[in-house]
Amino acid sequence: MEEEKKRVIRQLFLLSSTGLSMVLAIFIGLAFGVFLDGKLNTRPWFTLIFLGLGIIAGFRNIFWFIRHYGTGDDEKGKKRDKQDD
User: Fold this and answer.
1) Alpha-carbon dihedral of residues 79, 81, 83, 85, nearest 10 degrees?
2) Of the candidates 81, 70, 85, which has an alpha carbon nearest to the alpha carbon of residue 14?
3) Per-position DSSP letters for 51-81, written without gaps between them
4) 3-state helix, strand, coil in the chain (%, to 5)
5) Rounded alpha-carbon distances, angstroms, from residue 68 to 8, 12, 43, 77
6) Distance CA 8, CA 74 (A)
7) pTM, rounded to two decimals
């Protein structure tokens, strides 16, 4: 039972960190676009471009998570991580 509890806590941590990484990717893209628009006086073009890139990066983070940990089998995910390196 203790092993099952650890596995559930690990999966919850990975899931919450994935959500956080999506939000941060979008926010960083938006902030960088607003910064560039302010410096170059090109409103709203860089904001829209980098917001789009941030959204793409956020979804890429989710797809990466699903590909590596979506099976629910942590051992398989670890093996795939080693193969990717």
Assistant:
1) -150
2) 70
3) HHHHHHHHHHHHHHHHHHHTTS-HHHHHHHH
4) 90, 0, 10
5) 16, 15, 39, 5
6) 11
7) 0.73
Q: What is the largest CA-CA distance in the chain?
A: 60
Quickly state the pLDDT bin for 37 (edges 50, 70, 90): very high
Q: Are 44 and 51 in contact (CB under 8 A)?
A: no
Of 36, 9, 62, residue with least CA distance to 44: 36
8, two tokens: 């559930």
User: How many angstroms separate the Cα of 78 from the Cα of each of 11, 17, 48, 58?
Assistant: 13, 17, 37, 22
Distances (CA, A) of 77 to 49, 82, 84: 33, 9, 11
Q: Under 8 Å CB-to-CB from 13, ≥6 apart: which residues? A: none
